[in-house]
Amino acid sequence: MIEIKGVYKEFKGKSNNVEALKNINMHIEQGDIFGIIGLSGAGKSTLVRCINRLEEPTKGEVFIKDKNIMTLNSSELREMRKKIGMIFQHFNLLNSRTVAENIAYPMEIAKVPKEDRGKRIDELLKLVELEDKKDSYPSQLSGGQKQRVGIARALANHPDVLLCDEATSALDPKTTQSILKLLKKINETLGLTIVIITHEMEVIKQICTKVAVMEAGEVVESGPVPKVFAHPTHPTTKSFVQNISHDIPVELLDRIDHNRQLFRLSFEGIKTSQPILSKMIKKYGVDANILLGGIDHLQQTFIGSLIIELIGEEEEIKKAVAFLQENNVECEVISQ
Ligand SMILES: Nc1ncnc2c1ncn2[C@@H]1O[C@H](COP(=O)(O)OP(=O)(O)OP(=O)(O)O)[C@@H](O)[C@H]1O
């Protein structure tokens, strides 16, 4: 659906140049809800703006539905942009226009006949559950309602892709939930491909199918969300995931016997419901003292992490760890 190949972006300044994107390669499939996460300045907005050529890459190619968009002339580019909706952190609504008129705006530009516009506006208001706000002005709406209008406007011309630039960052947690639910519904009912950029792992956890982690203009880690959550490898990803990975509190670390071996086990999916740990205990005669842990429900799957102390013969502990790894339980030594 979207293929980003070797994309670089350099901003030239008076005193220095900024390399905002460095060799970005990304594959977004039809129907994905693809999250791009990174700290401020990582290059997320620049990357997303390269997808619709609001920003021109310095080097590299972007393909949408197998079409190299770098080769489009300005009228082809306008046509292509009709098929890419975008929503923003601060909604970007026109304050002098009503809700219905805001939704009509992209259809006016696309020269959709007036009677078709009216029908489409009603359909979209129903989809975003704002039928009663048709004639209200943006100033009369809450943040969540404004973003619903932003979503309806972005969908007006039946896009193939929806780009969301920090779409929930200005909203409270409850409103964020309702907007994420709406995006999921749109993805499922319309089969729309959604690209979300955010600095909140919670957003990725809630609805994304895949994630790319960006830092200093590069993608440092990417993959299906359950896999990246269960086995983050890059330190930046680890720090994003930390708040759900049941990190061991310092107070507990102080109290444990440092002559014993401490491990962090991470696992995902079906394994959470299998008695791998008790099998290991029986098979190798080692004791496992569970210090901390939990299982998170992540969309359709589960991911878990446990911090355990293994007590037993050195050789048997090694075998026990190998057994866990054979069963796709990641085992990281924390202390010994
Ligand atoms: N038009 C521009 N001119 C010069 N530098 C820019 C421009 N736009 C972005 N940059 C720089 O490019 C880098 C990446 O910026 P970008 O806005 O893409 O990051 P981001 O991850 O989206 O950050 P945030 O979450 O704060 O929006 C930053 O160092 C930024 O200062």
UniProtKB/TrEMBL annotation:
Organism domain of life: Bacteria
Official protein name in the record: Methionine ABC transporter ATP-binding protein
Organism (species): Defluviitalea saccharophila
PANTHER family: AMINO ACID IMPORT ATP-BINDING PROTEIN, METHIONINE IMPORT ATP-BINDING PROTEIN METN
Coiled-coil positions: none
InterPro entries assigned to the protein according to its UniProt record, in alphabetical order: AAA+_ATPase, ABC_transporter-like_ATP-bd, ABC_transporter-like_CS, ACT-like_dom_sf, MetN_ABC, MetN_ABC_transporter-like, NIL_domain, P-loop_NTPase
Domain ABC transporter: 2-241
Entry GO MF terms: ATP binding
PROSITE patterns from the UniProt entry: ABC_TRANSPORTER_1, ABC_TRANSPORTER_2
Keywords: Amino-acid transport, ATP-binding, Cell membrane, Membrane, Nucleotide-binding, Translocase, Transport
Matches recorded under SUPFAM superfamilies: ACT-like, P-loop containing nucleoside triphosphate hydrolases
